[in-house]
Amino acid sequence: MARNGGQIADTRDLAARAAWLSLVGGLTQDQIAFELGISRQRAQRLVARAYAEKLVRVRIDHPIAECLEREQALKAEYGLESAWVSPSLGPSVDVLTGLAPFAASILEQVFRNGQGQVFALGTGRTLQQVVESISTMDGARHRLVSLIGNVAPDGSASLYEVIVRLAEKLAAPHFPLSIPLISPSLEVSGLYRSLPHVRKARQLAESADLAIVGIGQMTKDAPLFVDGFITEEERQDLVAAGAIGELSGHTFNAKGEFVDHPMNQRIVGVRVPVNDVPVLCIGAGKAKVAPLRAALSGGLIHQLITDEDTARRLLGSG
Amino acid sequence: MARNGGQIADTRDLAARAAWLSLVGGLTQDQIAFELGISRQRAQRLVARAYAEKLVRVRIDHPIAECLEREQALKAEYGLESAWVSPSLGPSVDVLTGLAPFAASILEQVFRNGQGQVFALGTGRTLQQVVESISTMDGARHRLVSLIGNVAPDGSASLYEVIVRLAEKLAAPHFPLSIPLISPSLEVSGLYRSLPHVRKARQLAESADLAIVGIGQMTKDAPLFVDGFITEEERQDLVAAGAIGELSGHTFNAKGEFVDHPMNQRIVGVRVPVNDVPVLCIGAGKAKVAPLRAALSGGLIHQLITDEDTARRLLGSG
DNA sequence: CTAAGCGCCGATCATTTGCTCATGTGACGA
DNA sequence: TCGTCACATGAGCAAATGATCGGCGCTTAG
């Protein structure tokens, strides 16, 4: 007999159940189909869906020696507080496929251990993916604050609503900055900064317990340009001024010094590092090597999550 | 080219890496083989080994409605503090296959949250498997104490060294009871109880923050009998006296009252429940239904981890 | 009421995976 | 030195899996 006792309402339930049978029970899809009283194809699709919807969390419970070595080397070479290196997945796969769940589990630890802290968040595709990989958990004792505006020049909210998604996952109070990332002029920038809620958010961010940011390159595929925050001319202008990378929009040169360019004054968000807030940067990939090296050299970041490949390059001709 | 940069020392490292590529990266075994510069078969074996050695932890991140309902029902019907119900895996699979990792993740939570507590532990195949499924984590602030002796009548230590394994995983100080589970006579039992380290362990156990136990049936396949702690005659004698189940060797009847039998006095360990120590019982399977129902009715246990099937039976003709 | 659109379903088939067996290799003891 | 034993390796094959395709029913717009 099929063991399906009564109809199961939700298909997500069914997917979770199929995944449980498959992964924990080690049943074949035929057996799962029989247990649940469905066809094999349906069982297959349910398991696939469980993966797609990230109902299934996998974790490898063994530190790989080579990665540990690179963590030590990174800490030593750049004077980092902490470094985490995930195994690389090879060139055929997007770096974030591996980095995101890896970083997510580290952040989960951070959120779990902290006793009511303030986390200041950047944005970007990397952070977006990382946050997506974080499990829902109780983090209501923490507070989340944006480091940076999220409104694009066209007035739309940015694609990467990192802080909101994370706040959902943690059920934590959050303080987003619904203002432009880059304001049209210095005066407008000052105006924004004088708004009460902006001032409050900035104060909170400036006294956070940890800032969590991605990092951007300034080459042709610069996130700032691709997402429309700056024009190609502006990008070239910044590069001409020495810009090699950016943290939350603030561009810096190869020595890790923020470039002296009006663009950097027009950013409404908080520039890190600020005060004594430690900066945790998540980033990997060939394009991020140069910006990371610069930021590391300049002491702009204090903790790093990256992958093996990137770590190798950072250590290579250092 | 194969991307294997230099020989990787340990095969466990390699296994973890292969599992990472397979699960996180979604690579096929052929691709993994290529990445690591090994044959497809070797890649396959590495992934399999990673599973076998429990390097891979999977978790289903979705509460299944039906299980939640049964948890509520169990709490209501038996006045439990907490109940957790894992999805069943069907009759073809050992119940512990599903129950052990499920219970393990709950216990991990308990150990993670507690701020330096004392946990009193029973033994048995169930707890053994559960502990085996727990990840290594920092639990050095906790203390672990045995509820029960672990020496079999033939003088060998029991197969199920639950407390030692758990202490390894948590790096926690532990107080095992290296004494017989059941002593030959009342006098000897008293003698054992008077030993200083036994007294200390018993005191610790009696003031623990949580007792974690399995449950045994008294039918022909009774763990106590199968593992050689009692003879078949003794078992029958206990059954004749009404025994239907046991917690850490202490037998009780269908009402959940400890039976009045000399055997129960000869046990050197601590009988739970004791003082106000809450008792968390882990058990599932057809054979455990009757003992569980009795223990629940008699208020011997206050928290329960079981599976859907068992929950259904416990609620069925209650 | 009809018909187009959409999504779910099952069948079929190529790919991937895991098992078995035969062979190779290195360690240990006679 | 040789035998043998345990264990790792690779080849081949059967089973399991996942993708594609046509069909069916439901919804919705005309």
Question: What do you see in this structure?
Answer:
The structure is a homodimer of 318-residue chains. By secondary structure, chain A is of the alpha/beta class. Chain A is 44% helix and 13% strand. The first copy, chain A, has helices at residues 11-24, 29-36, 40-52, 65-78, 95-113, 125-132, 162-170, 186-194, 196-206, 223-226, 232-240, 262-265, 289-297, 308-316, and strands spanning 56-60, 82-86, 118-121, 143-146, 174-175, 210-213, 216-217, 245-247, 250-252, 279-282, 303-307. The longest helix of chain A has 19 residues, at 95-113. The radius of gyration of chain A is 22 Å and the shape is globular. At the A-B interface, helix 1, strand 1 and helix 5 of A face helix 1, strand 1 and helix 5 of B. Chain B binds a DNA duplex (30 and 30 nucleotides) through helix 3.
How are the secondary structure elements laid out?
The structure is a homodimer of 318-residue chains.
Chain A: H1 11-24, H2 29-36, H3 40-52, E1 56-60, H4 65-78, E2 82-86, H5 95-113, E3 118-121, H6 125-132, E4 143-146, H7 162-170, E5 174-175, H8 186-194, H9 196-206, E6 210-213, E7 216-217, H10 223-226, H11 232-240, E8 245-247, E9 250-252, H12 262-265, E10 279-282, H13 289-297, E11 303-307, H14 308-316
Parallel strand pairs in A: 2-11, 3-4, 3-6, 4-5, 6-10, 10-11
Antiparallel strand pairs in A: 7-8, 8-9
Chain B binds a DNA duplex (30 and 30 nucleotides) through α3.
Features:
11 strands; globular; alpha/beta; DNA-binding; 7-stranded parallel beta sheet; homodimer; 318 residues
What profile does the largest beta sheet of chain A have? 7 strands, parallel
Q: Beta fraction of the residues of chain A?
A: 5-15%
Strand order within the widest beta sheet of chain A: 2-11-10-6-3-4-5
Alpha carbon gyration radius of chain A: 22 Å
Determine the N-to-C terminus distance of chain A: 65 Å
Order of helices and strands of chain A: HHHEHEHEHEHEHHEEHHEEHEHEH
- Which shape of chain A, going by the Cα principal axes? globular
On the 0 to 100 scale, the average pLDDT of chain A is 90
Helix- and strand-based class of chain A? alpha/beta
Spans of at least 5 consecutive residues with low confidence of chain A: 1-9
Helix run count of chain A: 14
Number of strands of chain A: 11
> What share of residues of chain A is helical?
40-55%
